[in-house]
Amino acid sequence: MQRFGPLMHGMMLPGFFTHQLALAAYMQSGMMKKVIAIPAEDRVREWRDWQADSDKITLIEAEEKRLELQAKTQEAENLRGVGGGAFIIVTAGNHSDELKPEQISNGGIVAINVVSRWQIRGKDWDRELASPRYGLPAMWEVDNENGSPSQIHPSRVVPFRGARLPAGATLSDEDKFWGDSRLMRVYTEVSRSDETQAWFAALVKKAKLLRFGVPGLETYDQDQLNKRVALIAQGENSLNATLFRASGGTDDPGETITDYQVNWQGIPAMMDAFDQRVAAVSDIPFTRLTGRSPSGMNATGQHDNDNWNKMVVSGQKLETRPCLEQLDPFLLRSAGVDPTGIWWEFAPLDVPTEKEVAETFKLVMEAVGALIDTGMVPREALAQAVQNLIEERGYMPGLAEALKKIPEAERFGLSPEDDGGDDDPSAIQARGGDPDLAGSGGSGTGAARRAVNDAATWLSDATPRPLYVKRKLLNPADLIAWAKDNGFATTLPASDMHVTVLYSRNPVDPMKMGRDWREDEKGQIIVRPGGPRVIEKLGENAVVLRFACPDLDWRHKDMIEAGGSHDWPEYQPHVTISYTASEGVDLDALKPFNGVLRFGPEIFEALDLDWKSKIAEA
Protein backbone atom coordinates (compact mmCIF):
# COMPACT_ATOMS: atom_id res chain seq x y z
CA MET A 1 0.00 0.00 0.00
CA GLN A 2 1.36 3.38 -0.94
CA ARG A 3 2.52 5.58 1.92
CA PHE A 4 1.61 9.26 1.64
CA GLY A 5 3.91 11.77 3.26
CA PRO A 6 2.34 14.10 5.83
CA LEU A 7 3.16 17.28 3.97
CA MET A 8 1.81 15.95 0.70
CA HIS A 9 -1.36 14.85 2.44
CA GLY A 10 -1.74 18.22 4.11
CA MET A 11 -1.70 19.87 0.70
CA MET A 12 -3.69 17.17 -1.05
CA LEU A 13 -6.55 17.04 1.47
CA PRO A 14 -7.88 20.52 2.33
CA GLY A 15 -10.19 19.27 5.04
CA PHE A 16 -11.57 15.77 4.79
CA PHE A 17 -10.58 12.23 3.98
CA THR A 18 -12.53 10.20 1.57
CA HIS A 19 -13.52 6.73 2.67
CA GLN A 20 -10.63 5.16 0.78
CA LEU A 21 -8.02 7.56 2.14
CA ALA A 22 -9.30 7.22 5.70
CA LEU A 23 -9.15 3.43 5.43
CA ALA A 24 -5.66 3.58 3.89
CA ALA A 25 -4.38 5.90 6.64
CA TYR A 26 -5.86 3.60 9.30
CA MET A 27 -4.61 0.32 7.83
CA GLN A 28 -1.07 1.39 6.98
CA SER A 29 -0.03 2.48 10.47
CA GLY A 30 0.07 0.51 13.70
CA MET A 31 0.37 3.76 15.63
CA MET A 32 -2.76 5.12 13.92
CA LYS A 33 -4.70 2.00 14.85
CA LYS A 34 -3.69 2.41 18.49
CA VAL A 35 -4.67 6.08 18.54
CA ILE A 36 -8.12 5.17 17.23
CA ALA A 37 -8.61 1.88 19.07
CA ILE A 38 -7.41 2.80 22.58
CA PRO A 39 -10.19 5.34 23.37
CA ALA A 40 -12.82 3.04 21.85
CA GLU A 41 -11.60 0.04 23.85
CA ASP A 42 -11.27 1.88 27.17
CA ARG A 43 -14.74 3.42 26.94
CA VAL A 44 -16.37 -0.01 26.87
CA ARG A 45 -13.69 -2.14 28.55
CA GLU A 46 -15.41 -2.41 31.95
CA TRP A 47 -18.87 -1.78 30.42
CA ARG A 48 -21.67 -0.58 32.71
CA ASP A 49 -23.33 -1.43 36.04
CA TRP A 50 -27.13 -1.58 36.01
CA GLN A 51 -29.00 -0.43 39.11
CA ALA A 52 -32.11 -2.57 39.50
CA ASP A 53 -33.33 -5.80 41.09
CA SER A 54 -30.98 -8.71 40.49
CA ASP A 55 -33.59 -10.54 38.38
CA LYS A 56 -33.99 -7.54 36.08
CA ILE A 57 -30.24 -7.06 35.80
CA THR A 58 -29.89 -10.70 34.74
CA LEU A 59 -32.43 -10.19 31.95
CA ILE A 60 -30.82 -6.94 30.76
CA GLU A 61 -27.31 -8.36 30.70
CA ALA A 62 -28.54 -11.47 28.86
CA GLU A 63 -30.12 -9.26 26.18
CA GLU A 64 -26.92 -7.20 25.87
CA LYS A 65 -24.98 -10.41 25.41
CA ARG A 66 -27.43 -11.74 22.81
CA LEU A 67 -27.17 -8.56 20.77
CA GLU A 68 -23.36 -8.32 21.32
CA LEU A 69 -23.94 -4.76 22.45
CA GLN A 70 -20.58 -4.20 24.14
CA ALA A 71 -18.53 -5.35 21.14
CA LYS A 72 -20.68 -3.42 18.70
CA THR A 73 -20.43 -0.27 20.79
CA GLN A 74 -16.64 -0.60 20.59
CA GLU A 75 -16.90 -1.07 16.82
CA ALA A 76 -19.04 2.06 16.51
CA GLU A 77 -16.57 4.01 18.66
CA ASN A 78 -13.79 2.90 16.32
CA LEU A 79 -15.79 4.20 13.39
CA ARG A 80 -16.39 7.44 15.27
CA GLY A 81 -12.62 7.84 15.49
CA VAL A 82 -12.14 7.17 11.80
CA GLY A 83 -14.97 9.43 10.73
CA GLY A 84 -18.35 8.51 12.21
CA GLY A 85 -20.43 5.40 12.82
CA ALA A 86 -24.03 4.34 13.37
CA PHE A 87 -26.10 1.72 15.15
CA ILE A 88 -28.95 0.32 13.12
CA ILE A 89 -31.80 -1.18 15.13
CA VAL A 90 -33.17 -4.00 12.99
CA THR A 91 -36.65 -5.23 13.95
CA ALA A 92 -39.61 -6.82 12.24
CA GLY A 93 -41.73 -4.49 10.18
CA ASN A 94 -41.07 -1.77 7.67
CA HIS A 95 -37.75 -0.06 8.39
CA SER A 96 -38.98 3.17 6.85
CA ASP A 97 -41.67 3.52 9.54
CA GLU A 98 -41.04 5.34 12.81
CA LEU A 99 -40.14 3.01 15.67
CA LYS A 100 -41.23 3.80 19.23
CA PRO A 101 -39.99 1.97 22.35
CA GLU A 102 -43.49 0.87 23.36
CA GLN A 103 -43.74 -1.05 20.08
CA ILE A 104 -40.93 -3.39 21.19
CA SER A 105 -42.00 -6.64 22.81
CA ASN A 106 -39.89 -9.18 24.66
CA GLY A 107 -37.10 -10.19 22.25
CA GLY A 108 -38.38 -7.66 19.73
CA ILE A 109 -34.95 -6.44 18.61
CA VAL A 110 -33.83 -8.91 15.96
CA ALA A 111 -30.30 -7.55 15.72
CA ILE A 112 -28.15 -4.48 16.21
CA ASN A 113 -25.73 -3.91 13.35
CA VAL A 114 -23.01 -1.32 12.84
CA VAL A 115 -22.35 0.51 9.59
CA SER A 116 -19.90 3.27 8.79
CA ARG A 117 -20.90 6.76 7.71
CA TRP A 118 -19.92 5.89 4.15
CA GLN A 119 -22.49 3.10 4.00
CA ILE A 120 -25.41 5.29 5.05
CA ARG A 121 -26.62 8.55 3.55
CA GLY A 122 -28.98 11.20 4.82
CA LYS A 123 -31.92 12.27 2.68
CA ASP A 124 -33.94 15.53 2.79
CA TRP A 125 -31.85 17.39 5.34
CA ASP A 126 -33.73 19.88 7.52
CA ARG A 127 -32.19 23.34 6.95
CA GLU A 128 -34.83 25.36 8.81
CA LEU A 129 -33.01 27.16 11.64
CA ALA A 130 -36.13 27.28 13.82
CA SER A 131 -36.76 23.55 13.48
CA PRO A 132 -35.94 21.18 16.38
CA ARG A 133 -34.61 18.77 13.74
CA TYR A 134 -32.28 21.33 12.16
CA GLY A 135 -29.30 19.61 10.56
CA LEU A 136 -30.95 16.16 10.66
CA PRO A 137 -32.19 14.05 7.75
CA ALA A 138 -35.81 13.07 7.24
CA MET A 139 -34.71 9.58 6.22
CA TRP A 140 -31.57 7.46 5.92
CA GLU A 141 -30.65 5.37 2.92
CA VAL A 142 -28.50 2.22 2.81
CA ASP A 143 -27.53 0.46 -0.42
CA ASN A 144 -28.60 -3.17 -0.73
CA GLU A 145 -26.67 -5.90 -2.49
CA ASN A 146 -28.80 -5.40 -5.59
CA GLY A 147 -27.87 -1.72 -5.67
CA SER A 148 -31.28 -0.36 -4.74
CA PRO A 149 -31.34 1.83 -1.59
CA SER A 150 -33.35 0.88 1.54
CA GLN A 151 -35.14 3.62 3.47
CA ILE A 152 -34.51 3.63 7.23
CA HIS A 153 -36.38 5.93 9.58
CA PRO A 154 -34.13 8.08 11.86
CA SER A 155 -35.78 6.59 14.96
CA ARG A 156 -34.04 3.32 14.09
CA VAL A 157 -30.57 4.86 13.81
CA VAL A 158 -28.24 5.77 16.69
CA PRO A 159 -25.43 7.86 15.20
CA PHE A 160 -21.96 7.90 16.73
CA ARG A 161 -20.81 11.33 15.60
CA GLY A 162 -17.46 13.10 15.85
CA ALA A 163 -16.73 16.51 17.34
CA ARG A 164 -18.79 19.30 15.85
CA LEU A 165 -17.19 21.33 13.07
CA PRO A 166 -17.57 25.10 12.61
CA ALA A 167 -20.55 25.63 10.33
CA GLY A 168 -19.75 27.03 6.90
CA ALA A 169 -21.01 27.15 3.36
CA THR A 170 -18.17 24.89 2.21
CA LEU A 171 -19.39 21.98 4.36
CA SER A 172 -21.94 19.51 3.07
CA ASP A 173 -24.90 18.41 5.16
CA GLU A 174 -23.22 15.03 5.65
CA ASP A 175 -19.92 16.51 6.81
CA LYS A 176 -21.63 18.91 9.21
CA PHE A 177 -23.69 16.08 10.68
CA TRP A 178 -20.89 13.56 11.19
CA GLY A 179 -18.36 16.15 12.40
CA ASP A 180 -14.62 15.84 12.82
CA SER A 181 -12.69 12.61 13.21
CA ARG A 182 -9.88 11.65 15.52
CA LEU A 183 -7.98 10.34 12.50
CA MET A 184 -7.89 13.76 10.84
CA ARG A 185 -6.70 15.38 14.05
CA VAL A 186 -3.76 13.07 14.58
CA TYR A 187 -2.87 12.16 10.98
CA THR A 188 0.03 14.57 10.50
CA GLU A 189 1.75 13.74 13.79
CA VAL A 190 1.27 9.99 13.37
CA SER A 191 2.72 10.22 9.86
CA ARG A 192 5.77 12.06 11.17
CA SER A 193 6.26 9.45 13.89
CA ASP A 194 5.98 6.64 11.34
CA GLU A 195 8.46 8.36 9.02
CA THR A 196 10.91 8.69 11.91
CA GLN A 197 10.56 5.00 12.70
CA ALA A 198 11.10 4.14 9.03
CA TRP A 199 14.20 6.34 8.91
CA PHE A 200 15.57 4.63 12.00
CA ALA A 201 14.88 1.17 10.57
CA ALA A 202 16.78 2.13 7.43
CA LEU A 203 19.62 3.45 9.57
CA VAL A 204 19.94 0.09 11.35
CA LYS A 205 21.03 -1.45 8.06
CA LYS A 206 23.96 0.95 8.08
CA ALA A 207 24.91 0.33 11.68
CA LYS A 208 28.23 -1.10 10.55
CA LEU A 209 29.85 -0.30 7.21
CA LEU A 210 33.04 -1.64 5.68
CA ARG A 211 34.97 0.78 3.54
CA PHE A 212 37.54 -0.65 1.15
CA GLY A 213 40.53 1.33 0.02
CA VAL A 214 42.00 -0.31 -3.12
CA PRO A 215 45.17 1.21 -4.65
CA GLY A 216 44.99 1.53 -8.40
CA LEU A 217 41.22 1.07 -8.37
CA GLU A 218 40.98 2.92 -11.66
CA THR A 219 43.00 0.20 -13.37
CA TYR A 220 40.56 -2.58 -12.35
CA ASP A 221 37.84 -3.66 -14.70
CA GLN A 222 34.43 -4.56 -13.29
CA ASP A 223 35.05 -8.28 -13.13
CA GLN A 224 38.36 -7.85 -11.35
CA LEU A 225 36.79 -5.48 -8.81
CA ASN A 226 33.87 -7.81 -8.14
CA LYS A 227 36.17 -10.77 -7.66
CA ARG A 228 38.40 -8.81 -5.29
CA VAL A 229 35.52 -7.55 -3.13
CA ALA A 230 33.94 -11.03 -3.11
CA LEU A 231 37.22 -12.54 -1.92
CA ILE A 232 37.48 -10.05 0.95
CA ALA A 233 33.83 -10.62 1.96
CA GLN A 234 34.25 -14.40 1.80
CA GLY A 235 37.17 -14.28 4.21
CA GLU A 236 35.21 -12.14 6.65
CA ASN A 237 32.09 -14.32 6.52
CA SER A 238 33.73 -17.76 6.77
CA LEU A 239 36.79 -17.06 8.88
CA ASN A 240 35.65 -13.98 10.77
CA ALA A 241 38.77 -12.41 9.33
CA THR A 242 39.39 -9.82 6.70
CA LEU A 243 41.82 -10.70 3.90
CA PHE A 244 43.49 -7.77 2.20
CA ARG A 245 46.80 -7.05 0.42
CA ALA A 246 49.31 -5.58 2.80
CA SER A 247 51.62 -2.71 1.99
CA GLY A 248 54.53 -3.67 -0.24
CA GLY A 249 56.76 -0.75 0.71
CA THR A 250 56.87 2.99 0.65
CA ASP A 251 55.54 3.22 -2.86
CA ASP A 252 52.95 0.48 -2.30
CA PRO A 253 50.35 1.54 0.31
CA GLY A 254 48.39 -1.70 -0.02
CA GLU A 255 44.66 -2.08 0.56
CA THR A 256 42.87 -0.49 3.54
CA ILE A 257 39.55 -1.55 5.13
CA THR A 258 37.82 0.84 7.54
CA ASP A 259 34.88 -0.02 9.88
CA TYR A 260 32.31 2.77 10.24
CA GLN A 261 30.05 2.62 13.36
CA VAL A 262 26.85 4.67 13.58
CA ASN A 263 26.59 6.85 16.71
CA TRP A 264 23.17 6.11 18.27
CA GLN A 265 23.38 8.78 20.96
CA GLY A 266 20.27 10.99 21.00
CA ILE A 267 18.33 8.93 18.46
CA PRO A 268 15.99 7.16 20.98
CA ALA A 269 15.18 10.49 22.64
CA MET A 270 14.40 12.02 19.26
CA MET A 271 12.09 9.12 18.39
CA ASP A 272 10.35 9.51 21.75
CA ALA A 273 9.86 13.21 21.02
CA PHE A 274 7.82 12.37 17.92
CA ASP A 275 5.76 9.79 19.83
CA GLN A 276 5.17 12.29 22.64
CA ARG A 277 3.84 14.70 20.06
CA VAL A 278 1.39 12.02 18.93
CA ALA A 279 0.39 11.48 22.57
CA ALA A 280 -0.19 15.21 23.03
CA VAL A 281 -2.33 15.62 19.92
CA SER A 282 -4.36 12.46 20.56
CA ASP A 283 -4.80 13.20 24.29
CA ILE A 284 -3.51 9.70 25.10
CA PRO A 285 -0.74 9.57 27.72
CA PHE A 286 2.62 8.36 26.45
CA THR A 287 2.57 5.52 28.96
CA ARG A 288 -0.77 4.26 27.65
CA LEU A 289 0.18 4.75 24.01
CA THR A 290 3.57 3.02 24.11
CA GLY A 291 3.30 0.88 27.24
CA ARG A 292 6.30 2.48 28.97
CA SER A 293 7.51 5.69 30.54
CA PRO A 294 9.27 8.25 28.34
CA SER A 295 13.02 7.73 28.01
CA GLY A 296 15.01 9.70 30.56
CA MET A 297 12.08 10.22 32.93
CA ASN A 298 11.56 8.68 36.36
CA ALA A 299 7.76 8.83 36.33
CA THR A 300 5.86 5.67 37.25
CA GLY A 301 3.03 6.50 34.88
CA GLN A 302 0.33 6.40 37.59
CA HIS A 303 -0.35 10.11 37.30
CA ASP A 304 -0.69 9.76 33.53
CA ASN A 305 -3.02 6.81 34.02
CA ASP A 306 -5.22 8.82 36.39
CA ASN A 307 -5.40 11.68 33.90
CA TRP A 308 -6.23 9.28 31.08
CA ASN A 309 -9.03 7.71 33.10
CA LYS A 310 -10.50 11.17 33.54
CA MET A 311 -10.35 11.68 29.78
CA VAL A 312 -12.07 8.34 29.19
CA VAL A 313 -14.78 9.15 31.72
CA SER A 314 -15.32 12.49 29.99
CA GLY A 315 -15.67 10.75 26.61
CA GLN A 316 -18.07 8.21 28.11
CA LYS A 317 -20.21 11.00 29.55
CA LEU A 318 -20.24 13.36 26.58
CA GLU A 319 -20.22 10.95 23.63
CA THR A 320 -20.84 7.28 24.45
CA ARG A 321 -23.58 7.65 27.06
CA PRO A 322 -25.96 9.77 24.90
CA CYS A 323 -25.79 7.10 22.19
CA LEU A 324 -26.53 4.26 24.60
CA GLU A 325 -29.34 6.20 26.26
CA GLN A 326 -30.96 6.59 22.86
CA LEU A 327 -30.85 2.82 22.44
CA ASP A 328 -31.74 1.73 26.02
CA PRO A 329 -35.54 2.29 25.88
CA PHE A 330 -35.66 -0.28 23.05
CA LEU A 331 -33.14 -2.60 24.73
CA LEU A 332 -34.99 -2.78 28.07
CA ARG A 333 -38.31 -3.64 26.46
CA SER A 334 -36.62 -6.24 24.28
CA ALA A 335 -35.20 -7.71 27.51
CA GLY A 336 -38.73 -7.91 28.92
CA VAL A 337 -38.04 -5.34 31.64
CA ASP A 338 -40.11 -2.32 32.64
CA PRO A 339 -37.67 0.64 32.37
CA THR A 340 -39.27 2.55 35.27
CA GLY A 341 -36.71 3.34 37.97
CA ILE A 342 -33.85 1.54 36.20
CA TRP A 343 -30.57 3.36 35.63
CA TRP A 344 -26.90 2.60 35.14
CA GLU A 345 -23.40 3.95 35.48
CA PHE A 346 -20.20 3.06 33.66
CA ALA A 347 -18.16 0.61 35.70
CA PRO A 348 -14.92 1.92 37.23
CA LEU A 349 -11.97 1.83 34.83
CA ASP A 350 -9.46 0.58 37.39
CA VAL A 351 -10.01 -2.94 38.70
CA PRO A 352 -8.88 -2.96 42.37
CA THR A 353 -6.77 -5.75 43.84
CA GLU A 354 -8.13 -8.01 46.57
CA LYS A 355 -6.16 -6.01 49.12
CA GLU A 356 -7.59 -2.73 47.86
CA VAL A 357 -11.12 -4.18 47.95
CA ALA A 358 -10.59 -5.33 51.54
CA GLU A 359 -9.20 -1.94 52.58
CA THR A 360 -12.11 -0.14 50.91
CA PHE A 361 -14.61 -2.43 52.63
CA LYS A 362 -12.96 -1.72 55.97
CA LEU A 363 -13.13 2.04 55.44
CA VAL A 364 -16.76 1.85 54.32
CA MET A 365 -17.76 -0.16 57.38
CA GLU A 366 -15.92 2.26 59.66
CA ALA A 367 -17.83 5.10 58.07
CA VAL A 368 -21.09 3.20 58.59
CA GLY A 369 -20.14 2.63 62.23
CA ALA A 370 -19.51 6.35 62.71
CA LEU A 371 -22.89 7.08 61.12
CA ILE A 372 -24.58 4.65 63.50
CA ASP A 373 -22.96 6.38 66.46
CA THR A 374 -24.44 9.72 65.47
CA GLY A 375 -27.97 8.32 65.60
CA MET A 376 -28.93 10.66 62.77
CA VAL A 377 -30.36 7.92 60.50
CA PRO A 378 -33.23 5.58 61.53
CA ARG A 379 -32.13 1.98 61.94
CA GLU A 380 -34.43 0.53 59.30
CA ALA A 381 -33.32 2.95 56.58
CA LEU A 382 -29.65 2.51 57.49
CA ALA A 383 -29.93 -1.30 57.47
CA GLN A 384 -31.52 -1.28 54.02
CA ALA A 385 -28.89 1.12 52.66
CA VAL A 386 -25.95 -0.88 54.04
CA GLN A 387 -27.32 -4.18 52.76
CA ASN A 388 -27.83 -2.67 49.31
CA LEU A 389 -24.30 -1.25 49.39
CA ILE A 390 -22.77 -4.63 50.29
CA GLU A 391 -24.76 -6.35 47.53
CA GLU A 392 -24.01 -3.76 44.80
CA ARG A 393 -20.28 -3.75 45.48
CA GLY A 394 -20.08 -7.52 45.69
CA TYR A 395 -18.42 -7.57 49.11
CA MET A 396 -20.35 -10.67 50.22
CA PRO A 397 -21.50 -12.89 47.34
CA GLY A 398 -24.74 -14.70 48.17
CA LEU A 399 -25.76 -12.25 50.89
CA ALA A 400 -28.81 -10.98 48.99
CA GLU A 401 -30.22 -14.47 48.50
CA ALA A 402 -29.61 -15.34 52.16
CA LEU A 403 -31.33 -12.16 53.36
CA LYS A 404 -34.42 -12.91 51.26
CA LYS A 405 -35.06 -15.96 53.45
CA ILE A 406 -35.19 -13.86 56.62
CA PRO A 407 -38.39 -12.04 57.70
CA GLU A 408 -38.17 -8.34 56.90
CA ALA A 409 -38.56 -7.22 60.52
CA GLU A 410 -35.61 -9.40 61.55
CA ARG A 411 -33.64 -8.59 58.37
CA PHE A 412 -33.57 -4.88 59.15
CA GLY A 413 -33.03 -5.28 62.89
CA LEU A 414 -36.58 -4.37 63.94
CA SER A 415 -39.38 -6.08 65.84
CA PRO A 416 -43.11 -5.64 65.12
CA GLU A 417 -43.76 -3.90 68.39
CA ASP A 418 -41.35 -1.14 67.38
CA ASP A 419 -43.88 0.16 64.87
CA GLY A 420 -46.79 2.38 65.78
CA GLY A 421 -45.81 3.20 69.35
CA ASP A 422 -43.61 6.20 68.72
CA ASP A 423 -45.98 8.78 70.11
CA ASP A 424 -47.19 6.89 73.20
CA PRO A 425 -45.53 8.46 76.28
CA SER A 426 -46.13 5.35 78.41
CA ALA A 427 -44.51 3.19 75.74
CA ILE A 428 -41.52 5.53 75.62
CA GLN A 429 -41.09 5.36 79.39
CA ALA A 430 -41.54 1.58 79.38
CA ARG A 431 -38.78 1.20 76.83
CA GLY A 432 -36.63 3.44 78.99
CA GLY A 433 -33.29 5.06 78.36
CA ASP A 434 -29.85 5.95 79.63
CA PRO A 435 -29.85 8.45 82.53
CA ASP A 436 -26.98 10.28 80.93
CA LEU A 437 -28.43 10.33 77.38
CA ALA A 438 -29.43 13.96 77.88
CA GLY A 439 -31.81 14.27 74.96
CA SER A 440 -32.07 10.81 73.42
CA GLY A 441 -35.41 10.18 75.11
CA GLY A 442 -34.87 6.47 75.74
CA SER A 443 -33.90 3.46 73.71
CA GLY A 444 -37.17 2.79 71.82
CA THR A 445 -37.52 3.35 68.11
CA GLY A 446 -39.91 6.29 68.46
CA ALA A 447 -37.74 7.97 71.06
CA ALA A 448 -34.64 7.40 68.99
CA ARG A 449 -36.26 8.91 65.92
CA ARG A 450 -37.42 11.93 67.90
CA ALA A 451 -33.89 12.21 69.27
CA VAL A 452 -32.60 12.34 65.70
CA ASN A 453 -34.99 15.17 64.88
CA ASP A 454 -34.22 17.01 68.12
CA ALA A 455 -30.50 16.70 67.55
CA ALA A 456 -30.81 17.92 63.98
CA THR A 457 -32.80 20.95 65.16
CA TRP A 458 -30.47 21.60 68.06
CA LEU A 459 -27.36 21.49 65.87
CA SER A 460 -28.85 23.72 63.18
CA ASP A 461 -27.21 26.75 64.79
CA ALA A 462 -24.54 27.52 67.39
CA THR A 463 -26.80 29.27 69.92
CA PRO A 464 -25.45 28.43 73.43
CA ARG A 465 -27.55 25.74 75.15
CA PRO A 466 -27.06 23.18 77.92
CA LEU A 467 -24.83 20.48 76.49
CA TYR A 468 -24.32 16.77 76.96
CA VAL A 469 -21.37 14.88 75.44
CA LYS A 470 -20.82 11.13 75.64
CA ARG A 471 -18.92 8.26 74.04
CA LYS A 472 -20.72 4.94 73.51
CA LEU A 473 -19.09 1.74 74.77
CA LEU A 474 -18.28 -0.28 71.66
CA ASN A 475 -17.80 -3.62 73.47
CA PRO A 476 -20.74 -3.62 75.94
CA ALA A 477 -21.24 -7.39 75.60
CA ASP A 478 -18.01 -8.00 77.53
CA LEU A 479 -19.14 -5.85 80.46
CA ILE A 480 -22.67 -7.30 80.47
CA ALA A 481 -21.29 -10.85 80.49
CA TRP A 482 -19.10 -9.96 83.49
CA ALA A 483 -22.11 -8.44 85.31
CA LYS A 484 -24.31 -11.52 84.72
CA ASP A 485 -21.51 -13.80 85.93
CA ASN A 486 -21.26 -11.73 89.12
CA GLY A 487 -24.92 -11.86 90.12
CA PHE A 488 -26.51 -8.87 88.36
CA ALA A 489 -30.04 -9.87 87.35
CA THR A 490 -30.40 -6.95 84.96
CA THR A 491 -28.18 -4.37 83.35
CA LEU A 492 -28.63 -1.36 81.10
CA PRO A 493 -29.14 -2.31 77.45
CA ALA A 494 -25.94 -2.63 75.48
CA SER A 495 -26.95 0.34 73.31
CA ASP A 496 -27.19 2.58 76.42
CA MET A 497 -23.78 1.85 77.91
CA HIS A 498 -21.45 4.81 77.57
CA VAL A 499 -19.09 7.17 79.36
CA THR A 500 -20.15 10.77 80.00
CA VAL A 501 -17.61 13.38 78.91
CA LEU A 502 -19.60 16.52 79.78
CA TYR A 503 -22.91 17.21 81.58
CA SER A 504 -23.19 20.98 81.43
CA ARG A 505 -26.22 22.86 82.71
CA ASN A 506 -24.49 26.06 81.66
CA PRO A 507 -25.37 27.04 78.08
CA VAL A 508 -22.36 26.54 75.84
CA ASP A 509 -21.54 26.97 72.16
CA PRO A 510 -20.80 23.39 70.94
CA MET A 511 -18.52 24.71 68.17
CA LYS A 512 -16.15 26.05 70.83
CA MET A 513 -15.64 22.54 72.20
CA GLY A 514 -13.47 21.63 69.19
CA ARG A 515 -12.21 18.08 68.59
CA ASP A 516 -10.39 15.72 70.94
CA TRP A 517 -6.86 15.44 69.61
CA ARG A 518 -6.23 12.45 71.88
CA GLU A 519 -8.60 10.14 70.01
CA ASP A 520 -7.33 7.81 67.28
CA GLU A 521 -7.96 8.12 63.54
CA LYS A 522 -11.37 6.45 64.02
CA GLY A 523 -12.41 8.97 66.66
CA GLN A 524 -12.13 6.32 69.40
CA ILE A 525 -10.67 6.31 72.91
CA ILE A 526 -9.25 2.96 74.08
CA VAL A 527 -8.81 2.14 77.78
CA ARG A 528 -6.33 -0.68 77.97
CA PRO A 529 -6.94 -3.74 80.20
CA GLY A 530 -5.99 -3.39 83.85
CA GLY A 531 -5.19 -0.27 85.80
CA PRO A 532 -7.11 1.34 88.68
CA ARG A 533 -10.77 0.21 88.60
CA VAL A 534 -13.56 -0.09 91.14
CA ILE A 535 -17.24 -1.10 91.32
CA GLU A 536 -19.24 1.36 93.45
CA LYS A 537 -22.51 3.17 93.83
CA LEU A 538 -22.78 6.62 92.35
CA GLY A 539 -25.60 8.93 93.47
CA GLU A 540 -28.68 7.23 94.89
CA ASN A 541 -28.58 3.77 93.31
CA ALA A 542 -26.41 3.71 90.18
CA VAL A 543 -23.87 0.89 90.15
CA VAL A 544 -20.94 1.92 87.99
CA LEU A 545 -17.53 0.76 86.86
CA ARG A 546 -15.06 3.55 87.57
CA PHE A 547 -11.73 3.52 85.80
CA ALA A 548 -8.72 5.73 85.27
CA CYS A 549 -8.42 7.45 81.90
CA PRO A 550 -6.23 10.56 81.69
CA ASP A 551 -7.39 11.21 78.10
CA LEU A 552 -11.02 11.59 79.23
CA ASP A 553 -9.92 13.65 82.26
CA TRP A 554 -8.09 16.15 80.06
CA ARG A 555 -10.91 16.28 77.50
CA HIS A 556 -13.42 17.05 80.27
CA LYS A 557 -11.12 19.77 81.61
CA ASP A 558 -10.83 21.32 78.11
CA MET A 559 -14.63 21.53 77.85
CA ILE A 560 -14.97 23.10 81.30
CA GLU A 561 -12.40 25.75 80.34
CA ALA A 562 -14.41 26.38 77.15
CA GLY A 563 -17.46 27.34 79.25
CA GLY A 564 -19.02 24.04 80.34
CA SER A 565 -20.12 23.19 83.91
CA HIS A 566 -20.17 20.03 86.02
CA ASP A 567 -22.61 19.07 88.82
CA TRP A 568 -20.15 16.93 90.78
CA PRO A 569 -17.09 18.03 92.75
CA GLU A 570 -14.82 16.11 90.41
CA TYR A 571 -15.04 14.30 87.11
CA GLN A 572 -14.96 10.51 87.46
CA PRO A 573 -14.96 8.51 84.20
CA HIS A 574 -17.37 5.60 84.60
CA VAL A 575 -19.81 3.30 82.82
CA THR A 576 -23.19 2.74 84.52
CA ILE A 577 -23.93 -0.99 84.77
CA SER A 578 -27.29 -1.04 86.54
CA TYR A 579 -29.71 0.97 88.67
CA THR A 580 -31.15 -2.11 90.37
CA ALA A 581 -28.30 -4.12 91.83
CA SER A 582 -29.57 -7.53 92.99
CA GLU A 583 -29.78 -8.26 96.69
CA GLY A 584 -26.89 -10.30 97.89
CA VAL A 585 -24.39 -8.73 95.51
CA ASP A 586 -21.55 -7.47 97.68
CA LEU A 587 -20.15 -4.60 95.66
CA ASP A 588 -17.15 -4.22 97.93
CA ALA A 589 -16.17 -7.83 97.31
CA LEU A 590 -16.54 -7.72 93.55
CA LYS A 591 -13.44 -7.91 91.43
CA PRO A 592 -13.96 -5.15 88.81
CA PHE A 593 -14.20 -5.89 85.11
CA ASN A 594 -10.59 -5.82 83.97
CA GLY A 595 -10.87 -6.05 80.17
CA VAL A 596 -10.38 -3.43 77.45
CA LEU A 597 -12.92 -0.62 77.16
CA ARG A 598 -13.40 0.80 73.68
CA PHE A 599 -15.36 4.03 73.36
CA GLY A 600 -16.68 5.42 70.08
CA PRO A 601 -16.60 9.01 68.73
CA GLU A 602 -18.00 11.88 70.77
CA ILE A 603 -21.76 12.45 70.48
CA PHE A 604 -23.04 15.98 71.17
CA GLU A 605 -26.67 16.28 72.34
CA ALA A 606 -29.03 18.70 74.05
CA LEU A 607 -29.16 18.15 77.80
CA ASP A 608 -32.20 16.20 79.04
CA LEU A 609 -32.94 16.87 82.72
CA ASP A 610 -35.76 14.30 82.77
CA TRP A 611 -33.57 11.30 82.11
CA LYS A 612 -34.59 9.42 85.28
CA SER A 613 -38.07 8.71 83.92
CA LYS A 614 -36.59 6.91 80.93
CA ILE A 615 -34.53 4.23 82.62
CA ALA A 616 -35.14 0.60 81.63
CA GLU A 617 -32.96 -2.45 82.18
CA ALA A 618 -32.81 -5.87 80.57
Could you walk me through the main structural features you see in this protein, from its secondary elements to its overall organization?
With 618 residues, the chain is an alpha+beta fold. Among the domains are: 6-186, no CATH class; 354-414, no CATH class; 429-444 and 453-614, Cyclic Phosphodiesterase, Chain: A, CATH 3.90.1140. It is 40% helix and 17% strand. It has 19 helices and 17 strands. The strands form six sheets. It has a four-stranded antiparallel β-sheet with strand order 12-11-17-13, with helices on both faces. Strands 3-2-7 form a three-stranded antiparallel β-sheet, covered by helices on one side. A three-stranded antiparallel β-sheet has the order 4-5-6, with no helix packed on it. Strand 5 (137-143) and strand 6 (149-152) form a beta hairpin. The longest helix has 33 residues, at 302-334. The chain is flat, with a radius of gyration of 40 Å. The chain starts with 5 loop residues before the first helix and ends in a 12-residue tail after the last strand. Residues 1-15 and 415-457 have low confidence and may be disordered.
The stretches of 5 or more residues where confidence is low (pLDDT under 50) are 1-15, 415-457
Tally of separate helices: 19
Q: Give the number of DSSP strands.
A: 17
Spatial ordering of strands, largest sheet: 12-11-17-13
The shape is flat
Percent strand equals 15-25%
Q: Give the overall average pLDDT.
A: 77
Radius of gyration over all CA atoms, rounded: 40 Å
Structural class: alpha+beta
Can you give the helix content as a percent range? 40-55%
Distance between the termini: 87 Å
Main sheet attributes: strand count, strand direction, barrel closure:
4 strands, antiparallel
